[in-house]
Task: structure prediction
Amino acid sequence: MYCNSIATIQKSCTLQTVSLFPQFNPLDNDLYEQLGKLYGELYDMFGFETFHYGGRNVDFRCWNASGPLTDFMSRRGELAALDDGAFVDVWSGFQARAAQELRAAVTTAALGLGAEAIGPVEQIVWASKLTKGGERLPPAEYAVQVRTRSCQNICPFF
Result:
């Protein structure tokens, strides 16, 4: 089942990319359904207490080259600038929906496994433009993983 979810996401929910990494289409509602299935399958297999979303390789060049996404953003006043801030806002919306799918999938999977109650899953993301300033992700809900060679490089992300 896991492979079916991955194949569906790769085939139908990614954008043609100008980057090394395929980029999810944050406007595709099917993406969130497929992510929910994937999260549930992963929970069934591993029963995790922490989940790392990744997020270090979000490439705005790909999103900026996507007509449907930039058309959507242009119709929304706060996103019309198509600048990094607007793309981070779109990313923030994606992350909120992905987190909602994770919570729902884990709760459903845990109940299916006979668990009476499950605490919140610790959510982890890479330090990025999304985490900078701590305004877009609730700090109480996310741990931010920093990858650096020097402590001096940490400060710009917080």
Remarks:
- Residues 84-112 form the longest helix (29 residues).
- The first strand starts at residue 14 and ends at 15.
- The domain at 2-147 is CATH 3.20.20.80 (TIM Barrel).
- The chain has one domain: 2-147.
